[in-house]
Amino acid sequence: MTRFTVNNQPVQYDMDPQTPLLWALRDASNLTGTKYGCGTGDCGACTVDIDGAARLACRETIGAIEGTFVTTIEGLSPDRSHPVQQAFLAANLVQCGYCIPGMVMAASVLIRTNRNPSEEDIRQGIPNICRCGIYPRLVAAIQDAARIARGDPADGA
């Protein structure tokens, strides 16, 4: 049995400890917001927060994360009030939406650890791939999310 906490709920999986976290979340816990993109750790669609760090659920085995705290897109903010979710919606950033949960999770970790990220910080901190090409608006949305998180007024306010 592998035990850790997912979205503030203790879980235990009676699965092979080498099972990727992605499949435990999706198949055993029905948390399907974490997406399968490439399975090789290159696209970032499966990004989750593990103990405060953005990590790829396709590359983490459940045995390796025993005792940790995992937050998925479902646990970030059930009412979509997280600053990253607010900024992504305000920027009309979502196109197909497939990469968005992973980007939201990566961005949430970034703005928690860097309250005022530069464009370069964002490009380095969000390596996720978006096939729709939202990158030009992504930087501004993440900077806006950081502003919201800091409690700064909107530009022009």
Automatic annotation (TrEMBL):
Annotated organism of origin: Sphingomonas trueperi
Single GO MF descriptor: isoquinoline 1-oxidoreductase activity
PANTHER family the UniProt entry points to: BLR6218 PROTEIN, OXIDOREDUCTASE WITH IRON-SULFUR SUBUNIT
Entry EC number(s): 1.3.99.16
CDD domains per UniProt: fer2
Pfam families, per the entry: Fer2, Fer2_2
Residue span, 2Fe-2S ferredoxin-type domain: 1-76
The protein's enzyme class: oxidoreductase
InterPro entries found in the cross-reference section: 2Fe-2S-bd (IPR002888), 2Fe-2S-bd_dom_sf (IPR036884), 2Fe-2S_ferredoxin-like_sf (IPR036010), 2Fe-2S_ferredoxin-type (IPR001041), 2Fe2S_fd_BS (IPR006058), Beta-grasp_dom_sf (IPR012675), Diverse_Oxidoreductases (IPR051452)
Presence of the UniProt keyword Iron in the record: yes
Keywords per UniProt: 2Fe-2S, Iron, Iron-sulfur, Metal-binding, Oxidoreductase
Gene3D superfamilies per the UniProt record, alphabetical: 3.10.20.30, [2Fe-2S]-binding domain (1.10.150.120)
Keyword check for Nucleotide-binding: no
Organism superkingdom: Bacteria
Protein name according to UniProt: Isoquinoline 1-oxidoreductase alpha subunit
